[in-house]
């Protein structure tokens, strides 16, 4: 099995040590919703998050599935696609296994479920909005 990392053209480098601060600047770019056409109620899709620089955009994207109305999860937490080359403390590229785990951590830090649920409601307005529990007056 090859451990080479194949990155898209226009890739950018991030030191792993800067990843947590970079996560604060990563913004939702787009979400695609795919509904089953076989009669099943399966809903899934892809979401992409980006951090823009002067002339390039660093991005991460992954597939998600809806487990129940109002609950979305990553389809495969270790399958995060990206044009980001992560560098260790010596400036060397991470091995692909460590890169996958690190990108999975980045996804965990992002508030991506809200953006996906918003897109689900936008593309199917008949869906119920997730309601907060009622609070009783004191």
Describe it.
It is built from three helices and seven strands, in the order E-H-E-E-E-E-E-E-H-H. The protein is α+β, with helices and mostly antiparallel strands. It is elongated, with a radius of gyration of 18 Å. The strands form two sheets. Strands 2, 3, 4, 5 and 6 form a five-stranded antiparallel sheet that branches. The chain has a two-stranded parallel ribbon with strand order 1-7.
Would you kindly provide a brief summary of this structure?
The protein is α+β, with helices and mostly antiparallel strands and 138 residues long. It is 22% helix and 33% strand. Strand 4 and strand 5 form a beta hairpin.
Which labels suit this protein?
two-stranded parallel sheet; 33% strand; 3 helices; 138 residues; 5-stranded antiparallel beta sheet; alpha+beta
Helix-strand layout with pairing:
Blueprint: E1 12-15, H1 19-23, E2 27-35, E3 43-52, E4 57-68, E5 71-74, E6 81-82, E7 84-87, H2 96-109, H3 112-123
Parallel strand pairs: 1-7
Antiparallel strand pairs: 2-3, 3-4, 4-5, 4-6
């Amino acid at each position: 099995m090859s451990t080479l990392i194949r990155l898209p053209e226009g890739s950018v480098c991030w030191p792993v040590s800067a990843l947590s601060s970079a996560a604060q600047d990563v913004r939702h770019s787009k979400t695609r919703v795919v509904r089953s056409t076989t009669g099943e109620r399966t809903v899934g899709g892809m979401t992409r998050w980006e951090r823009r620089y002067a002339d390039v955009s660093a991005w991460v994207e992954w597939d998600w599935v809806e487990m129940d109305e109002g609950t979305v999860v990553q389809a495969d937490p270790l399958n995060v696609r990206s044009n980001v080359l992560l560098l260790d403390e010596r400036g060397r590229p991470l091995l692909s296994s460590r890169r996958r785990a690190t990108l999975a951590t980045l996804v965990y830090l992002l508030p991506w479920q809200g953006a996906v649920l918003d897109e689900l409601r936008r593309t199917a307005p008949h869906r119920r909005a997730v309601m907060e529990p009622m609070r009783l007056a004191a």
